[in-house]
Amino acid sequence: MNSEDEVFEAVGALTDPVRRGLYRHVAATPGAVGRDAAAAAAGISRSLAAFHLDKLVEAGLLAVTYQRLSGRSGPGAGRPAKLYLRAPGERAVSLPPRSYDAVGRLLANVVDGAGLDRELQSAARAAGAAEGADLGGDVDPVAALRSRGYEPYGDGATVRLNNCPFHSLADEFPALVCGMNLAFIEGLLPGCAGGGDWTAAMDPPPEGCCVALSKTNEA
Q1: Which end of the chain is more exposed for a tag (fewer CB within 10 A), N or C?
Q2: Which of 113, 105, 125 is nearest to 170 (CA)?
Q3: What confidence tens digit (pLDDT) does each residue in 14-69 have?
Q4: Is the peptide bond preceding residue 165 cis, with omega within 30 degrees of 0?
Q5: Distance between CA 120 and CA 26 in Å, rounded?
Q6: Taking all residues of the chain, what is their mean pLDDT, rounded to a whole number?
Q7: Which residues face 213 on adjacent strands?
Q8: pLDDT value for 98
Q9: What is the pLDDT of residue 130?
Q10: pLDDT tens digit string along 111-140?
Q11: Which Gene3D superfamilies match (predicted)?
């Protein structure tokens, strides 16, 4: 999806509040989501959920996959279910057009080329600490990270982050950007309610943010 008109159409598909809620649920859920689960999350009927989910697919915001939810295969296993997941790629609207990604890429090139990784991490940690201080200990780490676009979710005793807010730059400069991201979260945690009980570390999953959180008193 490259043209400005296509981006506007995709964003326009989210003006309906039900559709917007379904998109948020699917986008924030690791893996694919079925129609029944999406309908239950939105508090609507399965048929209405299917209608809106398919509209989101048409707009390029969701993708479709098919799986047998029973886990069985062969005769009698039933038809694969239609499941939905966040479509790859990014969509951004800026009026008038801006190119912040180009500036970010240029700055990352300079910092990377000059070997200023430690200085960047120190600045990121200080920025996280400043934001954490503003929280005043009133917001827990999960809520703090959710409000910053990380889309946290539980994975056993670990909290993983379904979204990397710096995805395009992290793909191009992984060591630089992931190190900055980790330092920022480390700086943020002490200002969160109970943040001292959590440790952030590099633990990249196949998809999502490279940083994961775990309780300091748990293995």
Answers
A1: C
A2: 105
A3: 999 999 999 999 988 888 999 999 999 999 999 999 999 999 999 989 999 998 87
A4: no
A5: 34
A6: 89
A7: 159, 200
A8: 78
A9: 97
A10: 999 999 999 999 999 999 999 999 989 999
A11: Winged helix-like DNA-binding domain superfamily/Winged helix DNA-binding domain (1.10.10.10)
Instruction: Write phi, then psi, for 46 (nearest 5 degrees).
Output: -65, -40
Those residues with Cβ within 8 angstroms of residue 55's Cβ, 6 or more apart along the chain or in another chain: 13, 19
Where are the chain's structural domains?
4-86, 100-215
**pLDDT at residue 1 in the model:** 42
Predicted TM-score of the model (pTM): 0.78
**163 and 151 Cβ atoms separated by less than 8 Å:** yes
164's tokens: 């990397």
Q: Which residue has the tokens 């989101």?
A: 56
Dihedral class, residue 60 (left if φ above 0, else alpha if ψ from -120 to 50, else beta): left
Q: What is the 3-state secondary structure (H, E, C) of the chain?
A: CCCHHHHHHHHHCCCCHHHHHHHHHHHHCCCCEEHHHHHHHHCCCHHHHHHHHHHHHHCCCEEEEEECCCCCCCCCCCCCEEEEEECCCCCCCCCCCCCHHHHHHHHHHHHHHCCCHHHHHHHHHHHHHHHHHHHCCCCCHHHHHHHCCCCEEEECCEEEECCCCCHHHHHHCHHHHHHHHHHHHHHHHHHCCCHHHEEEEECCCCCCCCEEEEECCCC
Identify any residues that bridge with 161 across adjacent strands, giving them in sequence order: 152
- The pLDDT score that the predictor gives to residue 177 is 96
